Please model this.
Amino acid sequence: MQAELYRDYKERVVPALCEKLGYKNLLQVPRVQKVVVNTCMGTHAADAKQALDDAKAELALITGQRPAETTAKKSISNFKLRKGQPIGAKVTLRGDRMYEFLERLIKMALPRIRDFRGISPKAFDGKGNYTLGVHDQSIFPEVELDRIKRPVGFDITIVTTARTNDEAKALLTELGVPFSDRKLPARS
Model:
């Protein structure tokens, strides 16, 4: 069963990007390679092990895939952090699961954010990848609000084959990602 977003990409987005960006070959059209969903609990909580287990359960529920545990790369005494200590979890989504997750994110989760006016168009990394921070897991429809023990934030990184930020933004816009068009106030 193919995800609806993947069929939309093949049927509508690829021809639209060929026309808009002037690609002559269909293989030049950028595509989404993978989506990485990452969470970090840190160790400052008194019940860090339980917090990490809860975060992993929420991540598995939201993505439909078992998360891998991430560990500290080096020791930092000020944070009471030891090298090799578990501090977070991540999931790498590819293929149908990736498109299903993106579809739920775009059509169901993002519109549930209070006072949502679109996501920032400035979070590209210069190589065509986009990272979005989600402050609370309650925006996802799979999460039951009664069972939330603590808020868990996520970083969602969308990795594309685009070579520039403009190509990646055009791809994500065509896929339906709601970018904010409001201007940020100038710094004085």
Observations:
- The two ends are 53 Å apart (CA to CA).
